[in-house]
């Protein structure tokens, strides 16, 4: 019987059980030799050195140390890195690709709950749920409670601006097909024809801001995307517009957003902030028309299993020589989220 390839886990214990429940471990162990009782969050020490010396596949996740030249030197047999989480950008030194390693990420699987969160917030934001709920809760006895009046609210016939045709952005565009909305897309790497295929009108950033009743951000954090929603562009948004950010906090100028929301002119839903987390007492945390969530749009709880399923399937594809669904190419590394 041929020897199965040796694999090693590098994932934080808090995430391990959710990403790799027992049945997935059983399936994985039919493909590779791996010790489910051992997972590394540091490659220092003799145990890690011994494991790396034999490893052909590294199954990583949240808590994985950075993979650099030193790690590669300790892992001469390593052929593939399969990341059972989202981005690998902060985990990999480009030397990984120089060594010829195959890299795969479960970012596509992690994008699913982010897109679901975004759609939920588009629906709630369009109804102005957060500000109206705050006013309802604060109403003085004997005064009208703000729950009947919904003039100018609702997602129906809204214009939704999507910034970035990333994995998440494309899933959001696909889900928006189920709503009677006009969809705008800004992405400098997408043609008008491709945008139309995605169900959107390709527009410039300023035009998207002028026309968008709701604007949702799905672009990567790059030097050229920092503060892409700055004070000038936030001022272009229509009165009552809602900004949703599940991408990276640096894409929005926090001070300018705080001023715009504090004035009551626009609202915001922020799963990411700059800085992250916001300091205690920051105005955005107290504004009734702003919802700040603690970077939870990605896989959580029961959703973690989807990442493990993706990773185990990728290991199977790698070993059979089939194309990897989540393969990361070296030229993509600077531009991914």
Q: Summarize this, please?
A:
This protein is 35% helix and 13% strand.
How would you describe what is shown here?
With 337 residues, the protein is of the alpha/beta class. The protein folds into 2 domains: 7-109 and 301-332, NAD(P)-binding Rossmann-like Domain (Rossmann fold, 3-Layer(aba) Sandwich); 127-292, NAD(P)-binding Rossmann-like Domain (Rossmann fold, 3-Layer(aba) Sandwich), CATH 3.40.50. The protein is 35% helix and 13% strand. It is built from 13 helices and 11 strands. The strands form 2 sheets. It has a 7-stranded parallel β-sheet with strand order 7-6-5-8-9-10-11, sandwiched between helices. A 4-stranded parallel β-sheet has the order 1-2-3-4, sandwiched between helices. Helix 8 links the parallel strand 5 and strand 6 (182-186). Helix 6 packs across helix 8.
Roughly what is the average pLDDT, rounded to an integer? Answer: 95
What's the level 1 CATH class of the largest domain?
Alpha Beta
Biggest beta sheet summary: 7 strands, parallel
CATH topology call of the largest domain: Rossmann fold
**How many structural domains in the coordinates?**
2
First-to-last CA distance: 42 Å
* Unreliable parts: none
SSE ordering: EHHHEHEHEHHEHEHEHEHEHEEH
Kindly provide the radius of gyration, computed on alpha-carbon positions and rounded to a whole number of angstroms.
23 Å
Number of helices: 13
Helix content: 25-40%
Task: Give the oligomeric state of the chains in this entry, treating copies of one chain as homo and distinct chains as hetero.
Answer: single chain
Strand tally is: 11
What is the overall silhouette? Answer: elongated
């Amino acid at each position: 019987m041929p020897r199965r390839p040796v694999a090693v886990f590098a994932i934080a214990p808090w995430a391990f059980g959710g990403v790799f429940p027992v049945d997935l471990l059983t399936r994985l162990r039919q493909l590779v030799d791996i010790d489910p009782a051992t997972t590394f969050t540091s490659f220092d020490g003799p145990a890690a050195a011994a494991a790396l010396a034999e490893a052909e596949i590294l199954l990583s996740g949240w808590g994985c140390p950075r993979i650099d030249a030193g790690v590669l030197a300790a892992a001469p047999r390593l052929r593939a890195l399969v990341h059972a989480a989202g981005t690998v950008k902060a985990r990999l030194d480009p030397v990984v690709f120089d060594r010829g390693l195959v890299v795969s990420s479960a970012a596509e699987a992690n994008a699913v709950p982010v897109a679901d969160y975004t759609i939920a917030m588009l629906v709630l934001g369009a109804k102005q749920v957060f500000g109206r709920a705050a006013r309802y809760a604060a109403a003085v006895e004997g005064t009208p409670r703000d729950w009947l009046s919904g003039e100018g609210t609702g997602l129906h016939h809204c214009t939704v601006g999507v910034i970035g045709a990333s994995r998440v952005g494309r899933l959001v565009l696909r889900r928006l097909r189920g709503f009677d909305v006009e969809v705008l897309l800004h992405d400098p790497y997408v043609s008008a024809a491709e945008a139309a295929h995605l169900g959107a009108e390709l527009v410039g950033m300023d035009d998207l801001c002028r026309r968008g009743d709701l604007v949702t951000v799905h672009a990567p954090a790059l030097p050229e995307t920092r503060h892409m929603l700055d004070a000038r562009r936030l001022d272009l948004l229509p009165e009552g517009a809602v900004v949703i950010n599940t991408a990276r906090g640096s894409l929005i100028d926090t001070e300018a957003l705080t001023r715009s929301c504090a004035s009551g002119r626009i609202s915001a839903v922020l799963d990411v902030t700059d800085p992250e987390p916001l300091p205690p007492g920051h105005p955005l945390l107290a504004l009734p028309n702003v919802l700040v969530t603690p970077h939870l749009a990605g896989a959580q709880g029961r959703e973690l299993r989807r990442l493990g399923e993706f990773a185990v399937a990728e290991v199977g594809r790698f070993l059979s020589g089939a194309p990897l669904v989540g393969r990361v190419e070296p030229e993509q590394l600077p531009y991914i989220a």
